[in-house]
Design a protein that fits this description.
304 residues; mainly alpha; 4-stranded mixed sheet; globular; disordered C terminus
Amino acid sequence: MTRKLLTGLSSKVYEHPFDRKALASLQNMPGVSLLLKKINEYGIDRLLRLQSLGSEIRISPRNFPQLYQAFVETCEILDVVPVPELYLFRGTGHIETYIVGVEKPLVGINLDAMEWLGADELLYVFGHEVARIKSQHMVYHQMAIVMPTLKNLLSSTTLGVGGLVASGMELGLYNWRMMARFTADRAGLLACQDIDVATITLMKLAGLPDEYLTTAVIEDFLVQAREFASNSFDTVDKVTKILSYTEPGLSWVVMRAGELLKWVDSGEYENVIQQKNLKTPEEPEEKEGKTPEEKEGWNFLTSW
C-alpha cells in the first residue's frame, strides 16, 4: 500500500475538539504555571530520558530493521522531524507504548507490541505517540505522567501549591490526557491510512490476539463502537466520571474506536488525507450575558 506523505501537516486540522477544550480548561487552573516551573527545576525531563537510556534497548536500522522502518515511515507520513529515538522494553503481557522528552523526545515500545502488531498496525501505534510532538503538548503529557508522585511532594512541602489545588490539577490532567487520546488516535489513522487497520489495532490494544480476530468479532466490535459513540453521558454522575478517568487499567478502546469512526464518517479524515477543505478551529468570541460556566468553557466534571 502506497501511503500519502502529509507534508506540512498541522495538528490543528485533525485535533479533536474535546482535546482542545480540555487543555484550555487545564491551562486556566490555578497553580499550573508554578507546577511546570517546579517540574523544570527538578529536572524531570532529563530523569525520564535517563530511565529509558539506562534500561531499554535502542532500536536502529541494524538490530530491528522492520520495527525501525515502520517508525521512520510514520514520522515521514506525519511530517515529524527530526525522527525521535526509539527504544524497546520488556513485555508486560499487553501492548504498551510511550513517549517522553520535551526538548528531545524519545518513543518506547514493548516486546508484546513488536510481536503482536503487523507493519501497518505499528504505523498506527507510532502515529498515536508522535502525535504529542505534532501538537506540541509534550510538556503537559509529561506532567500527567509524573503528577501522582509530584502531588504527594507538593502536598508535604511549602512550594506554594496546596494539596487540594494539586488534586484538582491531577483530575484536570487525567481528563485532558483522556481527551488527547482522541487526537492521537486520529494521528494514528493518518499514519496507517486505513480505518480497518486502526480498528484491528485498537482491538489488539484491548487484548485480543490475531487468532481471535475473526470477521464476526470485528463486525460486532464495530457495531458496539458505533452504539457507544451514539450514547449521551451528560447525565453520568460527576464522581463516576472521575473514577473512570483515574482508573489506569481502562483502555477505553470502544469509545476511542467510536470517536474515530465518527471522524471518518464526517468526511473530515478524507479532507485531511487529500489536504483540501481543511478547517482550523477559531477562538470563540466572548459574548455578553454568558453564565460563568459558559465563559469558563469545557469543564471536565460536567462535560463528556
